[in-house]
C-alpha cells in the first residue's frame, strides 16, 4: 500500500499587517528543542558519504528508497578510491559544483560504466509526507525520508527535488549515460527535476561547497582542474572513533509536521508578512549529530 501522509496546512491565516507574534505558536527552534528521541531517525553510517576537501568535510545523506542503484554505484566508486585526488572541476556560480574525472582517465573496477536512469521511482512501500501547497514543478511536493521530494499520483512515481545541496549524477544527452560524474546543486534548480537522478542531499558542510573556486571545465590536461577532493568515503568505512553519526527529524512524526508549520507562517514578532505557504526547498531539514550511547 502506498503510504501518503498530508502535512496539514497552518490553522493561522497569513497576517501581513502586524509584527505581533502569533499567539501560542512556537518557533521552529522551540519545536526542535522540545523533540524527544522518538522524533529523530538515525541515518545509518552505510547511507552517508563524507567528502573531505582541503577546507573541511561535506556530509551527504543518501536516499536508497528513490535511487538505489545510483546509491550502490557511488558507494562502489568510493570504496574503489575512484574520487580520491580528483577535483571539483566545474563550479558555476548559482548553479552546481561538479566533481569527478573530467577526462575519463581513471579505470572503473567494480562500478558500472553506464547507469540506467532513476529520474523517478515507483513503489508501494515509499512513505511520502505530502504538502498541501501548490508546486509549479510537481503535482505534489513533500518529503521522502525527510528529504524534499515530488510525487505524481497518476504515474505513481516519486523523485527528489533539486533543492540546494541535492546530490546527483550528471549525464550526456542519453537517459542511461550516467556513470561517475556527480554534482551538487549550489542553489535550487527545480527545472532539472525528473531529468537527472538525484539520490542524496548535503546535510552538513554546504559552506565548503559554496566556497569552492568557480571554474569552467578544463579543456586540456594542463588546465586548472579546480579544488581537490582529498578523500571520498562511505561513513561506515571510517573508523568508529573518527566517525560522526547523524540523526534527521523523522518526516513521519508529528514534530516534523509542526516544524513545517512553524516555517509556513513564522510566528516570531520580526515577521510582518506571513504568506501561509511553504516551499520545500526553503525548509532546512533538521539534522543533528548523534550522541554516543
> What composes the largest sheet?
8 strands, antiparallel, barrel
**N-to-C SSE series?**
EHEEEHEEEEEEEEEEHEEHE
Supply the helix-strand structural class: alpha+beta
Taking all Cα atoms into account, the compactness measure Rg is 20 Å
Low-confidence stretches: 10-19
Distance between the termini: 35 Å
Dominant shape: globular
Strands of the largest sheet, in order across it? 3-4-14-12-13-6-5-15
Mean pLDDT: 92
The count of strands amounts to 17
Instruction: Give the proportion of residues in helices.
Output: 10-25%
What labels describe this entry?
293 residues; alpha+beta; 8-stranded antiparallel barrel; 4 helices; 12% helix
Q: How is this structure best described in words?
A:
The radius of gyration is 20 Å and the shape is globular. The chain has helices spanning 28-33, 68-80, 206-210, 254-264; strands at 3-6, 40-43, 48-53, 56-62, 87-91, 96-100, 121-122, 127-130, 140-144, 147-152, 157-160, 166-169, 182-185, 198-204, 227-234, 246-249, 287-289. It is an alpha+beta fold and 293 residues long. Residues 10-19 have low confidence and may be disordered.
Secondary-structure map:
Blueprint: E1 3-6, H1 28-33, E2 40-43, E3 48-53, E4 56-62, H2 68-80, E5 87-91, E6 96-100, E7 121-122, E8 127-130, E9 140-144, E10 147-152, E11 157-160, E12 166-169, E13 182-185, E14 198-204, H3 206-210, E15 227-234, E16 246-249, H4 254-264, E17 287-289
Parallel strand pairs: 1-8
Antiparallel strand pairs: 2-16, 3-4, 3-15, 4-14, 5-6, 5-15, 6-13, 7-11, 8-9, 9-10, 10-11, 12-13, 12-14, 16-17
Amino acid at each position: 500500500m502506498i503510504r501518503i501522509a498530508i502535512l496539514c496546512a497552518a490553522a493561522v491565516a497569513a497576517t501581513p499587517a502586524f509584527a505581533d507574534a502569533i499567539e501560542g505558536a512556537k518557533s521552529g527552534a522551540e519545536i526542535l528543542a522540545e523533540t524527544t528521541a522518538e522524533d529523530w531517525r538515525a541515518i545509518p553510517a552505510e547511507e552517508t558519504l563524507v567528502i573531505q576537501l582541503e577546507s573541511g568535510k561535506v556530509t551527504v545523506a543518501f536516499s536508497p528508497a528513490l535511487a538505489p542503484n545510483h546509491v550502490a554505484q557511488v558507494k562502489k566508486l568510493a570504496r574503489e578510491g575512484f574520487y580520491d585526488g580528483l577535483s571539483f572541476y566545474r563550479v558555476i556560480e548559482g548553479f552546481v559544483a561538479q566533481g569527478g574525472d573530467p577526462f575519463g582517465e581513471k579505470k572503473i573496477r567494480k562500478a558500472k560504466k553506464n547507469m540506467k536512469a532513476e529520474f523517478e521511482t515507483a513503489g508501494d512501500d515509499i512513505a511520502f509526507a505530502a504538502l498541501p501547497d501548490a508546486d509549479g514543478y510537481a503535482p505534489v511536493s513533500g518529503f521522502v525520508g525527510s528529504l524534499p521530494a515530488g510525487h505524481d499520483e497518476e504515474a505513481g512515481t516519486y523523485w527528489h527535488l533539486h533543492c540546494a545541496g541535492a546530490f546527483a549524477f550528471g549525464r550526456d544527452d542519453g537517459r542511461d549515460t550516467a556513470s561517475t560524474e556527480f554534482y551538487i546543486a549550489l542553489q535550487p534548480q527545480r527545472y532539472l527535476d525528473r531529468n537527472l537522478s538525484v539520490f542524496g542531499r548535503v546535510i552538513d558542510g554546504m559552506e565548503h561547497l559554496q566556497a569552492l573556486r568557480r571554474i569552467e571545465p578544463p579543456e586540456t590536461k594542463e588546465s586548472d582542474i579546480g579544488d581537490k577532493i582529498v578523500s571520498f568515503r562511505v561513513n561506515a568505512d571510517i573508523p568508529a572513533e573518527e566517525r560522526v553519526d547523524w540523526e534527521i527529524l523523522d518526516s513521519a512524526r508529528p514534530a516534523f509536521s509542526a516544524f513545517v508549520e512553524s516555517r509556513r507562517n513564522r510566528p516570531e514578532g520580526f515577521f510582518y508578512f506571513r504568506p501561509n505557504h511553504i516551499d520545500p526547498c526553503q525548509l532546512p531539514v533538521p539534522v543533528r549529530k548523534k550522541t554516543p550511547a
